[in-house]
Amino acid sequence: MTNTAPATRGRPRTFDRNLAVKAAMELFITKGYDGVSLEDLQKVMGGISPPSFYAAFGSKDALFREVVTLYRQTMGESVMQALQTSPVRDGIEGMMRAAVELFRSNEAAPGCLIVLGAVNSTRTSKDAHDLLSEARSEGNEMIRRRLLRAVEEGDLPKGLPLADIAGFYTTFMQGLAVRARDGATKPAMMSAVNGAMAAWPALTKPSRAAASTKKTRSAR
């Protein structure tokens, strides 16, 4: 009797999935969503075939979603952790300085995947654009919640327009990402952070809180 080995279904994966996703993240950071092709992904992810790619990730959009999650949990985590520092002024400043460090950490592609990964909403990139737009909105909301916590803890006066303050520093942070991509140096960007923090006393002074409360009451 001839012994025969049992048949196996399909071909086993010949790549490390975690390393493949990290490689894809670096590529998306460098080229953005629109600038990355399936061939590019295959190459950096260990030379996997299209069938293996689709079996593992489903689609380029699904992989990009996984990459964004990884980026936020790893590279972006230092920025959000710095935000939780007390007092809240130090948290806001620490967040921006951590952002500068992050945006300048990749010399080949400075900037931020969340801000610059899919700037335009086209037919092919709409899902990626909407995903990053949602992520940016969540970042703004995290800043607003940190400010609200500061009010509850007595670190900031009640009645401040927290959404406006959060919007100011969100807009500034996104501008830092663009400046980094355009080649601004770390010292220049840190100096800009100094300027943004110079606005803090005016943004958070009690008289502004009182004016905001008065405006809200008159609108009722």
Structure commentary:
The chain contains 12 helices and no strands. The protein starts with 16 loop residues before the first helix and ends with a helix. The chain is mostly helical and 220 residues long. It has helices at 17-31, 38-44, 50-57, 60-73, 77-83, 88-103, 113-116, 126-152, 162-181, 186-198, 200-204, 206-219. Residues 1-12 have low confidence and may be disordered. Helix content is 68%, strand content 0%.
Chain-wise SSE layout:
Layout: H1 17-31, H2 38-44, H3 50-57, H4 60-73, H5 77-83, H6 88-103, H7 113-116, H8 126-152, H9 162-181, H10 186-198, H11 200-204, H12 206-219
Overview features:
single chain, 220 residues, mainly alpha, 12 helices, disordered N terminus
Question: Which ranges are low-confidence, i.e. pLDDT below 50, for 5 or more consecutive residues?
Answer: 1-12
The strand count comes to 0
Computed CA radius of gyration, to the nearest angstrom? 22 Å
Structure classification: mainly alpha
* Distance separating the two termini: 92 Å
Outline the biggest β-sheet. none
The dominant shape is: elongated
Into which percent range does the helicity of residues fall?
55-70%
Content of β-strand: under 5%
Task: Please provide a brief summary of the model.
It contains 12 helices and no strands.
